Amino acid sequence: MELQITDVAFGGKGVARTNGKAVFVPYVIDGETVRANIAHEHKKFLEAELDSIVTASPHRVEPRCPYFGRCGGCVYQQMDYEHQLALKWRQVKETLRRIGGLQEPPMRPFIPSPIEYEYRNRITVHVRDSLIGFFRRESNKLLDIEYCPIASNEVNARLGELRRSHPRDGHYSLRARLGPRVFTQANDAVAAAMLDLVDRLLGSANGTLIDAYCGAGFFSKRLRRRFERVIGIDWDQHAISIARGDANENETYVAADVETELGARLRSITPSTDEGNTAVIVDPPAPGLSKTILQTLIEHQPTDLIYVSCNPATLARDLATLKKSFGIDSVTPLDMFPQTAEIECVAHLETKTAFPPKL
């Protein structure tokens, strides 16, 4: 059937309508007219596969990757980078409206990646029955790949070495640099921009910083000089051990459950014990914050709350709860993963009931 693509949903599929149902089509751009074949019919929507482009968008470009369309990673290589950013910005805004109930989300401009390809400092490939590569789109079957255009040259060199070594079946993390095996952001340039952003958002906060889900201290190491006390919390004992390795006297790193430890640490902070504003950074995994952590933040409100999210939907869900006690100052999307549907966001919240001034 012939379809008019009116939008692109979070996740990367184009949206059209026919006979009162939404139709989702991959690898298209809003504004295009396409021919598509229905692949799956559901009660409220249809899934289709692209057959041909009838009227192409002016933003359409030639994908750089020979595996594009088969690999399950990138979904936006068919559109120019500026349009990718505009599209993702709109997706975040609409998600905050629809799920978060924020009619006018305080969106800041997108922070782009300085490079659109060759930015990834690590990838994970899978080996099965002599195939080495990534999973195919919407499948558990492997696609054999010789190189990945969004990975750095160093990572692709590691991939070449792995392929020549005839490895056993399993999963292999390939990194641009040797170092501790702890979580790090995959795009160095955007990670640096994120640190600068968080530093600016915290303004004059200088009392106690609690860095929840701190890993090896990505945020706390940058911010430790400006705060009197820094407390990092993470369940990963290996990451905490690394954070402790070069800790200053004002830094404490705790290997513990964030739900339990965050509440205990916030309860210990009062206007009489804290010499300045209290700031909390939360950087949870994709499922977002638990109800317990949300309740803890509401009951023991820090002056500033930085919420770093890799999932706009769960960020919006959690902001819907937090906005009852916090003012949402800003939401800044960052393009950590160009060519993919992934979006990183940093939200800055401020308490509505700040600590009373000291006499």
Cα separation of the termini:
73 Å
Shape: globular
Give the uncertain stretches in residue-range form.
Answer: 354-359
DSSP E strands, number: 17
Order of helices and strands: EEEEEEHEEEHEHEHEHEHEHEHEE
Q: What integer is the average pLDDT?
A: 93
Q: Strand-residue fraction? A: 25-35%
How many helices in DSSP terms?
Answer: 8
Keywords for this entry:
359 residues, alpha/beta, seven-stranded mixed beta sheet, 8 helices, disordered C terminus
Structural features, described:
The chain is α/β, with parallel strands linked by helices and 359 residues long. It is built from 8 helices and 17 strands. The protein has helices at 81-98, 153-164, 188-201, 218-223, 237-245, 258-267, 291-299, 312-322; strands at residues 2-4, 7-8, 14-18, 21-25, 33-41, 45-55, 122-128, 131-135, 142-144, 170-175, 208-212, 229-234, 251-255, 278-282, 304-309, 326-334, 344-351. The strands form 3 sheets. The protein has a 7-stranded mixed sheet with strand order 13-12-11-14-15-17-16, sandwiched between helices. It is globular and about 60 Å long. Mean pLDDT is 93; it is low at 354-359.
